[in-house]
Amino acid sequence: MKTNEVLENIKSRRSIRAYTARQVSKDDLLTILEAGAYAPNGMHLETWHFTAIRDAQKLEELNMHIKGAFAKSEDRHLQERGNSQTYCCYYHAPALVIVSNDPTQWWAAMDCACAIENMFLTAHSLGIGSCWINQLGTTCDDPEVRAYITSLGVPENHKVYGCVALGYADPAYPVKEKNLKTGTYHIV
Ligand SMILES: Cc1cc2nc3c(=O)[nH]c(=O)nc-3n(C[C@H](O)[C@H](O)[C@H](O)COP(=O)(O)O)c2cc1C
């Protein structure tokens, strides 16, 4: 099989769930956001928006509102998370990008997924770890969560399709080797 720098970057990227306190520089964050905006998107309408947060207090407040929404859930597992003192949906990453879009575009989720993958790969190429964070996707319409993300600048007509945690991987938590399922693809 062929290889090159791009392929190596794709294959070596892993989800990072433990971060050091080192912040992602503004310059690197802008590079990652720009790569997201270069992603393919339906009819190139660019209806998406990326809200990047580097403020630790705001991230903690966001997590608190998400936990508040979980606590109201009928799902016991979510209730446990909502009532947990330690649960942090973004793994204490120093930066988080909220990726949102206008849900009236039926491809809104696909656009966001393309942007998120571009951000993951760009971050990895810069030595920055990342992980998809889904919890805001299911809670963004909770009134308290909505009011909070509106205050952060997430457009009011948008749904959240995913978030990108960003930071430097904590070496104390090495990532496991990735094994691929066989039979995922074939050529006719
Ligand atoms: C749509 C989607 C949602 C995900 N949500 C979460 C999440 O909320 N929290 C998390 O830790 N990982 C989440 N992940 C990461 C996956 O668990 C991860 O990509 C998968 O286990 C493969 O591992 P890798 O990314 O290291 O290759 C999500 C991934 C995708 C594509």
Automatic annotation (TrEMBL):
Matches recorded under Gene3D superfamilies: NADH Oxidase
Keyword hit for Iron-sulfur: no
CDD domains: PnbA_NfnB-like
GO cellular component: cytosol
Domain Nitroreductase as annotated: residue spans: 10-168
Molecular function per GO: oxidoreductase activity, acting on other nitrogenous compounds as donors, with NAD or NADP as acceptor
GO biological process: 2,4,6-trinitrotoluene catabolic process
Keyword vocabulary terms for this entry: NAD
Alphabetized InterPro entries for the sequence: Nitroreductase, Nitroreductase-like, Nitroreductase/BluB
Pfam families: Nitroreductase
Descriptive protein name: Nitroreductase
Organism: Jilunia laotingensis
Phylogenetic classification of the source organism: Bacteria, Pseudomonadati, Bacteroidota, Bacteroidia, Bacteroidales
